[in-house]
Amino acid sequence: MKMKKLISVSMMKANFLHLEQQLREIHQVPVDMLHIDVMDGSFVPSYSLFPDLIRSIRSCSLLPFDYHLMIESPSYKLKWFDIRKGDSVSVHYECEEETCLALDNIKELGAKAGIALKPLTSVEIIEPYLDKLDFVLILGLNPGIAGQTFIPETLDKVKHAKEFLHQKKKDHIKIEVDGKVCFDNAKIMSQNGADIFVAGTNTIFQNNLSISKACEKLRNEITTK
């Protein structure tokens, strides 16, 4: 069965001075999730989206949350967030000492569980966890470092991930992509097998396009052959 292509809007890229207004605009267009980047300044050299701010976003939205936890000790810190049934939560393989425990704890909360992979981490490392996964998050940039350019090998990595999951008879596991997901890249990623697209400043939050127009354009790119 063909999977629906999903759009997850990156709240880290929203304008926090006009957050409520932007959330109202987002809810008027067909998006599927709100992408919540959490950085702890330890696993990555940046901070983002603290629990109090996340709770404020939750109070203004009924959309599922798509958490990307770029943090140390994710199993312990899951309780910091209002994770609900129907949300998605990805933890990094590079915190591998806790990967199995974190995935189990995510499932216990009723959320979908995923593994996030840095650009240089191979797809094959997810094999021991396939029975626990609902999705894999492939990054086109190294997490937590500003001012990077897109890593073009990501396009082939998406295709390889799709082939790997098919080979392992795990076609139900979705592929999410994040990092410089511009319109052109999104189209190629979709053709290569991506299912979920994190939309930020390269698509949804552009100065020259309204959120509704940008979302419509992105939807067209990821659903057109």
Q: Mean pLDDT, nearest integer?
A: 92
In CATH terms, what is the fold-level topology?
TIM Barrel
SSE topology string: EHEEHEHEHEEHEHEH
Molecular shape: globular
| CATH homology superfamily name | Aldolase class I
| Alpha-beta content class | alpha/beta
The termini sit apart by 17 Å
The number of helices is: 7
Strand content: 15-25%
* Total count of strands: 9
Name of the level-1 CATH class:
Alpha Beta
- CATH A-level architecture: Alpha-Beta Barrel
- Radius of gyration, whole Å: 16 Å
* Major sheet attributes: 8 strands, parallel, barrel
**Estimated helix fraction:** 25-40%
Q: How many separate domains?
A: 1
What does this structure look like?
This protein has an 8-stranded parallel barrel with strand order 1-2-4-5-6-7-8-9. The protein has a single domain (6-223), classed as Aldolase class I (TIM Barrel, Alpha-Beta Barrel), CATH 3.20.20.70. The protein is of the alpha/beta class. The protein is built from 7 helices and 9 strands, in the order βαββαβαβαββαβαβα. The protein has helices at residues 19-27, 51-59, 74-77, 99-108, 153-167, 183-191, 211-223; strands at 6-10, 33-40, 47-48, 65-70, 88-92, 112-117, 135-139, 174-178, 196-199. 31% of the residues lie in helices and 20% in strands. Helix 6 (183-191) packs parallel to helix 7.
